Amino acid sequence: MGAAIDAERFDSRYAALFGDLVALARALGAGSDAEDVAQDALIQARSHLHQLREPEKLQAWARRIAIRGACRSRRRQMESLGDELVQRLPVSELPGLDVAEAIARLPERERLAVTLVFGMGYRQDEAAELMGVAAGTVYSSIWRARRKLAHLLADDERAPAPTGRSLR
Amino acid sequence: MTRIAQRLISIGLRGHLSETRLNELAGAATGPTPPAGAAEQAHLDDCARCRGLLAGYRRADAVLSGAWTDRPLRTETEALASGDRAGRLRVGPLRIAGGAASRPGRRWMASFGAVAVLVAVVAGAGLLELRGSGPPPASGSPSAMLTTPAGTGFVARLPIDQYGTFSWSPDGAHLLVSDDSGSRVYDRFGKLVSNFAQREGWLDASHLVAGDGHVSNFDENYTSESVWKSGLVVAGGHGSAAIIVAVPACTGDPIVDWYDDGHYAKAGEKATPYGWSPDGKLVLLGHMDCSSQDAETNGWKGPVEVVDFATRKVLATAPAVRGEMAFNPSWTRLAAESDQNLEIVDIATGQVKIVPDARLLGWSNDDIVAYRTPVGTIGTVGATAEIQPFGGISAAWSTSSSIGLELVADASGNPLYVLGANGKPTLDLSSAGLELVPDVARPVPDVGPRLSALWHSPWSPDGRMLAFRSTAAVELYSVDPGGRAESGAPSAG
Lengths: 168, 493
Known about the structure:
heterodimer, A: Arc Repressor Mutant, subunit A, 8 helices, about 5% strand, B: alpha+beta, five-stranded mixed sheet, four-stranded mixed sheet
């Protein structure tokens, strides 16, 4: 564990952290709120620096706060049905299937996991740290998302699953 | 077992290719993927469902592993996605199929129906007194105080989503059902007692602890929006009311914080808590590297220690666990999966026995472990004797309740029937569409990396009730030791 980080050292990294958090918040669906989310996250982090047990994890800590803010912002925007919602989505589309819609409809934890890992390139343990969950939760979230996508993107000739388990 | 085996040896493989196999065939599984065998290919040629799902897995892989970019959702999509639990709705061509689309609605109806029958159970104390809660009745000591539905047969169907989990309270009086929509406590008649926050577990027979560390009486409603405060709470303890909180910081191992009697007892131990013995005295702590490539692709692997929580002494160690674990009924031995092998640990002596090429099914009784062989049949092995097949190879195995009733299941985890005290089948479950699943705090995915988890018996601690998973439900059954069948099993679905 390194030395505790002070406000002055934190401020010296503000610009770099801010840009990183804006990009992250935008990718997770904060849209036009992305800069506000980033700023709020940094304000919150700065006011709680004493709680940071491992200063070398400052960026991950700030990202985790920003992810929560981005999720709240996305939920607000979903409720308001205002402007088009921008978020990180797969480029590929399949004929007759709306892949973006399938991703957007995943439960929040699963959508976060696949977006961070596949859409943004984080390792699964990094995504776990950012999401504030155990690594195993990210593993299982990704595999749940993958299974759901497989069902959602399956050929429609298939019959209901016979194993007694439904899609959800 | 031999008698059971002879009756069931003719049971053939059921239904479709497993999703695990479809996943492998889609090419996503790591390592060499065995190609479809002739029988599998013939099934695929004939089965539209498996063919369609195989295509779905391939498409999902292509979509996820392809390029991503920040882009707007279509307005129509945004409106649809605004609904909570949006993942319950199908998109693409499946949306055209009216029958499939109506199922999520029915599940919601079932949930609301369950809420409508909310029954408030009045308990004495309002404020939590951890020290005063006292130890729960020991498993294996049936409590005469528990009211049990009369007769043998189906009792209730409780809603749960696909990845939900359920667990009996330490005294068997209540069942906790947890899924993405929250958690609910039911009594043995299937009546809803309370709603609780997510990621919680039984602290003792009277108390639940939430993912944020909040402790409530089992009959108090408690909800919390916070799912971030802690990544994992493994509740348990016996008298001491101990819980373990695993701080979600997995660059390396999770960090375990210990709480004992409501007091902070130990901090920062790098370990992965998997659960408690049913008496709440032993806790399983894994020491896994969760950041390696092997862990990412195949799941965490490492030693799991059996720790006496009161003294913090390591009693025994399963050397290389990756998969399911289970205590025997008297909590004197632990069976744990290690890739292809099964490790049987004697907690008193620390001795470890390895059963090669075996996947854990469960403990038939204190001394016999049932396992699945590589070819899908069932073997049993004596935990105290030399490692050798016990009772031959069969198509079924059984797990005993604390009062000697036996639940018979096949190698796929499908319950078949219950043998009464007279040794005769008293409850036929073979057509009820049930699954014998671990009622662990965390689900074990049936595809993807294996997550180690602690398996508990479907029997309630007093041996009178059974809990199984079925389609979008947990089903409760009661068993009369005298063999009276009154209510009967419901039809599948």
